[in-house]
Amino acid sequence: MPAIAERMVSASSPLFSFELLPPLKGNSVYRVYSIVDKLREFDPAYINITSHHSEAIYVPQPDGSHRRTTIRRRPGTVAIAAAIQNRYGIPAVPHIICKGFSKDETEYALLDLNFLGITNLLLLRGDSKSVDTMIQDPEKYHRYATDLQRQVNDFNRGIGIDGTPIEGIETPFCYGMACYPEKHEEAPNLAFDLRTAKMKVDGGARYLVTQMFFDNEKYFEFVTRCREAGITVPIIPGIKPITKAHQMTVLPRVFHIDIPEAFSNELMKCQTDAAAAACGVEWCVAQCRELIERGVPGIHFYTHYASDSVREVAKAIY
Ligand code: FAD
Q1: What is the pLDDT along the chain (318 residues), one digit of tens a residue?
Q2: From the CA of 185, how far away is ligand 1's center (Å)?
């Protein structure tokens, strides 16, 4: 499979790509295929598959106490990536995260991916929430995405986590990493976050993918600042159509992003979910048209609870 970073710089028109979640534990893989089937006519250049660490839960006991245990609600990232790449012949981009995954587990995943012929990755720290309560021994776990990046770079050079050689890496992993036009929630300021983005690129990230945003100006300003900071790789906008009015308060809380006033005013007028979804598609189409006019290398869609809307948007712009 080609390195998707090369397609980003050589494509004559903006690439279409999207992100999928593995099915909830116990659900069929056909749920995932149904989303790909819905969107494949728009010629996706690649499909990302998210990764999810285990969460701590407390199970009520007959004596009234609670037993702490862990569950992984969405296992199967590597397997779903392989299934999609084999079934559709579209490059799959599994997300590799360091929260909740030890360095050893990461190495096993990289070995599996190498055997499976999956050569594109997105490297991330992972959501920190519930896993933060677990003890993450720094000897066994990475702290930041850039620490994970060093492991992948070593792997690409044929060096395992304990320094032993790894043979048979014909195609090194091509990887992208995350960036945040509205600043990562934990970064003290945007300048700090830009330094993080620069470290990622200097360390070998071939492209960056943004957190979702609804105000294109924030993306354009961010790209300008990245270029001033010497970041020259493609910066792929991550876009999500809003499908329900209540998302205008949920998304800012979860993702630390703003909803522009003009958009929230329109969403406030929606009396039904269908009206909110139509409003979300309209906003998203306008956003994408402007991004394309201004020359973005591609648009990456977040499809979670939004695949029908993504289809509507893709129909309008591709
Ligand atoms: P990092 O780059 O490690 O940054 C985290 C914070 O630490 C930032 O504030 C940064 O400025 C700071 N920082 C970074 N390096 C250093 C350093 N060396 N010293 C001091 N501070 C530092 N989450 C999942 O769990 N699974 C997914 O599949 C997933 N997919 C995603 C896809 C995209 C495109 C995006 C944008 C996010 C995704 N996330 C996913 C969420 C992501 O894991 C969270 O946003 C997470 O909180 C940060 O990830 P990161 O890779 O940007 O972390």
Answers
A1: 779 999 999 999 999 999 999 999 999 999 999 999 999 999 999 999 999 998 888 899 999 999 988 888 999 999 999 999 999 999 999 999 999 899 999 999 999 999 999 999 999 999 876 665 566 788 999 999 999 999 999 999 999 999 999 998 989 999 999 999 999 999 999 999 999 999 999 999 999 999 999 999 999 999 999 999 999 999 999 999 999 999 999 999 999 999 999 999 999 999 999 999 999 999 999 999 999 999 999 999 999 999 999 999 999 999
A2: 9
HEC states along the chain? Answer: CCCHHHHHHHCCCCEEEEEECCCCCCCCCHHHHHHHHHHHHHCCCEEEECCCCCEEEEEECCCCCEEEEEECCCCCHHHHHHHHHHHHCCCEEEEEECCCCCHHHHHHHHHHHHHHCCCEEEEECCCCCHHHHCCCCCCCCCCCHHHHHHHHHHHHCCECCCCCECCCCCCCCEEEEEECCCCCCCCCCHHHHHHHHHHHHHCCCCEEEEEECCCHHHHHHHHHHHHHCCCCCCEEEEECCCCCCCHHHHHHHHHCCCCCHHHHHHHHCCCCHHHHHHHHHHHHHHHHHHHHHCCCCEEEEECCCCHHHHHHHHHHHC
- What pTM, to 2 d.p., does this model score? 0.96
- CA 96 to ligand 1 centroid distance, Å: 11
Q: How far is ligand 1, taken at its centre, from the CA of residue 41, in Å?
A: 32
How many angstroms does the Cα of residue 153 sit away from the middle of ligand 1?
Answer: 18
What residues line ligand 1, using a CB cutoff of 6 Å? 50-51, 95, 97, 124-128, 144-146, 178, 184, 186-187, 192-193, 196, 209, 211, 238
**Atom number in ligand 1 closest to CA 211:** 36
